[in-house]
Amino acid sequence: MSSIKFGNARQSISSIPVKELAEQFGTPLYVYDLSVIEKRIGELSKFDVVRYAQKACGNIAILDRMRRHGVVVDAVSAGEIHRALAASYCAEASKAEIVYTADLFDRAALEMVVEHGMLVNCGSPDMISQLGELRPGAEVTLRINPGFGHGHSQKTNTGGEQSKHGIWHTQIDDCLLRADQTGVTVTGLHMHIGSGTDLEHLSEVCDAMEKAAISVGRTIHTISAGGGLPVPYKDDETYVDLDKYFELWDATRNRLSERFGHRVSLEIEPGRFLAAESGYLIAEVRSVKKMGDNLFALVDAGFTDLARPVMYGSYHPISVAAKSGDAADREQVEVVVGGPLCESGDIFTQREGGYVDSRRLPAPRVGDYIVLENAGAYGFVMASNYNSKTRAAEVLIENGEAKLIRQREQFEDLTRGEIIPA
């Protein structure tokens, strides 16, 4: 069992008491349960390649453990290339352990891609020309926007004409002409329309992928299903049927393999699916107060630590870990959970649009711990120093042991690099 939880009262994470974690490492604190990540990796074993979208959770210790389990990575910036290299991934295009996927080359990323001879997944036609000028004869894959999208929020919809992502599906011929000018070969296609993909939309994506691959022709050796595999944040949400998901993509791959006369490799590019449920954000309750009819529990973590609620109105399961005793024995009350920032939007229990909600929880007390769950994806990676808050520490639980994988920032880190001119 990865944790001990009774309703919305929690005692431990991966058998380690929440109180013990908080006292040893301080709060706010991100905790990741490696066994959850390992389980999710195993569930994708039918795919030829599992490529982790490290933007979801990029600590190099987690990347290292992914690598040890045969998972490769994509990188969407020069900084993510640096992270992948630091985690001992090989940059050579022939091994494709790192693929640079973006809609543009900033100068630093282009320099690193050329220096290391990396494989590039191009999201704009200009990228083909820019790479070809500096590395003629390179192999690339293309990220295709099929003209439609799907996501849990409009802000996470990565397909359709209102999305900046990918090469518009009618521009494939232009891309091939650009590639021919410098001897670049298109060896793969990638298609990702957003998070929360369901099977009905997936069937449309598979059809679009097949048509795009046929347009490119026999140089295609790889197709990527992209990411967007959903995980449940609420009780009424479910996982996608992974067997049916694979069957749809496998059928597409097999038809293309038969058409081209060689085996086409099938990749999947999960981010949230591998990381989300492994992660917990532990915060200490520092104040409990009534504001009219609302009871507020104010904690020492804010949207500087977990931005998804303020950005998307995202729902995260919340539980209470008592400083003493068992929170499961307490009266259940409606609670608004907020943070320390000088912002009205610093509320973890809110809906999209900034509407404040409450959550039914064991009556919180000062000194208790609030645990924000399913926080492993797009949690720490979106953290900031707004209000000059220091960023949290990160801990990985592996084989029953809590291991520090990021030190807590200190005040000196806030002003590091800042200069008062003479």
Helix content: 25-40%
The averaged pLDDT comes out at 94
Strand fraction band? 25-35%
Distance between the termini: 59 Å
Seen as an oligomer or otherwise, the chain set is single chain
Uncertain regions: pLDDT < 50 for 5+ in a row? Answer: 151-158
Plain-language structure description:
This protein is α/β, with parallel strands linked by helices and 422 residues long. Helix content is 28%, strand content 26%. It contains twelve helices and 23 strands. Strands 4, 14, 15, 16, 17, 20, 21, 22 and 23 form a nine-stranded mixed beta sheet that branches. Strands 5-6-7-8-9-11-12-13 form an eight-stranded parallel beta barrel, surrounded by six helices. Strands 1-2-3 form a three-stranded antiparallel beta sheet. Strand 2 (9-13) and strand 3 form a beta hairpin. Helix 6 (125-134) packs parallel to helix 7 and helix 8 packs parallel to helix 9. The radius of gyration is 23 Å and the shape is globular. The protein starts with a strand and ends in a 7-residue tail after the last helix.
